[in-house]
Structure formats: structure tokens, C-alpha cells
Amino acid sequence: MNAANAHPLLTIADIALRTGLEESLLRFYESEYPNALPTKVLRGDALLFPEEAVAAFQRLHRRQAPQQAPQPPDRPRYGRVIAITSGKGGVGKTNIALNLAIAIQRLGKMCVVVDGDLGMANIHLLAGLPPRPGMTELLAADARPSELIGEGPEGIGIITGGSGIIALADSDQATRRRMIKALAEVERQADVLIVDTGAGMGRGVRDFLQAADEILFVITPDITSLADAYGLLKGIDQERGGDDRRPIYSVVNMADTLQQAANVALRFSDCAHRFLGRSVKNIGYILKDATVGAATARRTPYSVFRPQSRVSKHTHNLAVALLRDEMDELRISSAFGRYRKMLDNGGQP
Ligand SMILES: Nc1ncnc2c1ncn2[C@@H]1O[C@H](COP(=O)(O)OP(=O)(O)OP(=O)(O)O)[C@@H](O)[C@H]1O
Ligand SMILES: [Mg+2]
Asked: For the chain, how many structural domains are there in total?
């Protein structure tokens, strides 16, 4: 047996087989980190890797924290940014944001929930977590985007609004820009970002509504909920322009019966279609359930407190419906990245 057989030379395809890593990712590592890899050897007219390259690629891959692993440049993927909103307050946005994130995570997707409710940030309270610095405070202290993400229940990520986010309500331009840039980075690290916005069309809320790939309206059978939701949709429609085809969904919360929920959903989508020419797809129903209040009293998300409850099952169904409805073309560009470009080009938030 000669020396070459004892230590075979390897192509990228061989290394992909040996490491289980994709060839495009290996090529990306090769171009980005040439100094971390052994020198290639000329064999015939091909440059091949020596055996040690297998371990070197594995080391390189391990060194990238899983969330920070660079995307192969030929297939960039960005998480879906779904903003949860409502015209009127108190309709269940924060509860749905948190429990939907948990349901999505249970379905095998990496989910980060962003507390975008200016001044009223409270996801961490519902999740039973101790207070932690909010994203504006962390960004002011030069934190990296991945450091904004705290650990929430069942492995979801939580980006806390915190009290510092009040500064955002005053829309300090530099802070807003920094937040948008950081969230664009977070999009590379998660499959889905759920943003819990405040109600209505306040200044800070607009950034999220303008940037989001998808908007999920929470509506309730309360008559003012529907009227306010319609008012907000009209505002969004005007800001986004008629040719914007990003999906808009609704979920009916706190209905007493499915019949009532279906009527509410139909009324909303009918108005949207008739007066704005917008299609709003209803994607779920969550009935009124005392489990929500009981879970809040225990500072536990309801889907953790009682996973078999009606409200947890409805939220699971909502997650399944959302994951089924993915628009692939929105995955190849970053929602916050697009928004940032629009602001750079003088677009109005
Ligand atoms: N399906 C439900 N069944 C019963 N109660 C619910 C349900 N969903 C939400 N609630 C209750 O409604 C209230 C408002 O919920 P939540 O704080 O999630 O709403 P919100 O839209 O985020 O409010 P805000 O606009 O103030 O941020 C809470 O007391 C919550 O327990
Ligand atoms: Mg809320």
C-alpha cells in the first residue's frame, strides 16, 4: 500500500460525504477561511484536499455557533417575519404571539418572538421570565444581534422590548436604524420571527408593519374590534401601495362559538375585499377559554400550562396553517433588509 492510498486525497464531494455538510457550504468556508484549511495538493490536473481537511472543515463548522453559521451565498434564506397586530387593544395579541411561537417551535422550526409593543413590553412576563434588558438598551451597549435573543419556554427565542424601548417611541432615528439592522441579522438565524406589535398605527408599530413579510390581524367578535381592524388595514394599504402582494391574514380570538368566529372572519375579509380590493385570508379560530386567564395568573404560557386545552389546540392549528402557507419568494430577501433599503432611498416609514 503506498502513501497516497493510506492518506487519500479528497474532493469537496468526498468531504461533503464524510462530514455530512453541504458542498455549497464547504465551498463557502473554503473561500471565506482559506487559512483555517490545509493546503491543497495537485494530483493530475486537480487540486485536492489532504485527509486533514475533513477535521479542519468540521472544526470550522463547529466554531460557527449554530445560529451564526453563514448561509451559502447561492441559497440565502431568511426567516419569515410575521407581525401580529390589531386595531383595538386587549384582543389577545401577546398571548397569541407567545403561544404561536411555542407551537411553531414544537413543529420543528426555530422561532423567535420579538416584543415590539412600545412601552408596554410584556411577553417576558407572560412567559414567566425575569426582566431582562430590552433590545434598545442592548443595542446601545453595542450588543451583537444574536445577543438580543434570550431563551424562552420550550427553546423559543425572545427579544424583549424592555423599558428602553420607550426611547423608540420617541423614534430616535439612529436607534431605529440600529434595531432594523439587527433584526435583519436575526432573520438569518431563525425560521420564523413573530413580532408582537402594539395596537393601532403608532410610530414604532409602523416600522414592524411596513417591514413584515406577513401581517396577522387578531380580531374578536367585539364590534369595535372589527371597525378598528378595518381602519388599520386601510392605513397599511395606503402605506404599502395597491400592488403590494405580501399576505395579510386574520385570526379570530375570543369567540364563543365557531359559527360566530366564522361570521366575524367573513365580515372582515368582505370589507377588505369590497372597499380596498385586498384579500385577507382567515387562518384560524381561537375560542374563549378560561385556560388563558388561569395560565396568566401562573405566569406560564397557556400552551405549556395546559397543552391539551381547547385554546392550545386551536393555537397549534393556527401554527400548522401558517407553516403550510409559505411564500417562497419572500424567503430569499430579508424583510428588515428591504425596509432598510427603502428608508435609505428616502421612503417614508
Ligand atoms: N382566547 C382567550 N380566551 C379568554 N381570554 C383571553 C383569550 N385571549 C386573550 N384573553 C385575555 O384577554 C386579555 C388581553 O390579552 P393580551 O394581553 O394577550 O392582549 P393584547 O392584544 O396583547 O393587549 P394589548 O393591546 O394591551 O397589548 C388578557 O386578560 C387575556 O387573558
Ligand atoms: Mg399585548
From this structure: 2
